[in-house]
Design brief:
CATH class: Alpha Beta
CATH architecture: 3-Layer(aba) Sandwich
Number of helices: 5
CATH topology: Glutaredoxin
Structural class: alpha/beta
CATH superfamily: Glutaredoxin
Number of domains: 1
Order of helices and strands: HEEEHEHEHEEH
Largest sheet: 5 strands, mixed
Strand content: 15-25%
Strand order of the largest sheet: 5-4-3-6-7
């Protein structure tokens, strides 16, 4: 019985740390990071009915692989009120800029060169990428979702 309790306690610690990301309904912490030209782009100044916050990196294969689908989603809903604020955690500035150009990313692109140790990841409790959250009126309304599920939520929030 004691072994079962110890295993249960260990499992609880491991799983609670694995999903430490901020929860639905939580206020979205401010992010203020530079774009590729060094101009500061605060999240609070982004205008959109809903904002898809995407944590990614140019060195992350699943992140890069999902970008064409994210661009399609952006192109489909941007005129209806969707904005994408893509936070790169690349430490290599030139690799990040090159990836953005190569992928032809049309949305707001900022970089936190401190990676997972940067304020953005710490504030949002991001421990893995790709990681996408949906924000509305300064609150988190979607997290830990596939792009398909995010699109359904975006449609709902934009009255599609």
């Amino acid at each position: 019985m004691r072994k079962i309790l110890i295993l249960l306690a260990l499992f609880t610690v491991i799983t609670s740390n694995s999903y430490a990301q901020l929860s639905i309904g939580t206020d979205a912490p401010e992010i203020k990071l530079p774009d590729s030209l060094g101009k500061w782009k605060p999240l609070s100044e982004v205008k959109g009915k809903v904002i898809l916050l995407d944590f990614w990196a140019a060195w992350c294969y699943p992140c890069v692989k999902s970008m064409p689908d994210l661009v399609k989603l952006y192109n489909k809903y941007h005129t209806k009120g969707l904005e994408v604020y893509a936070v790169s955690i690349d430490k290599g500035y030139y690799n990040w800029v090159e990836a953005c150009r190569k992928l032809e990313l049309p949305f707001i692109l900022v970089n936190d060169a401190y990676g997972f140790n940067g304020n953005a990841c710490k504030e949002y409790k991001i421990e893995s990428i790709p990681n996408k959250l949906l924000l509305k009126d300064g609150k988190i309304i979607g997290a830990n979702m596939s792009l398909y599920d995010l699109e359904k939520l975006i449609q709902k929030e934009l009255g599609e």
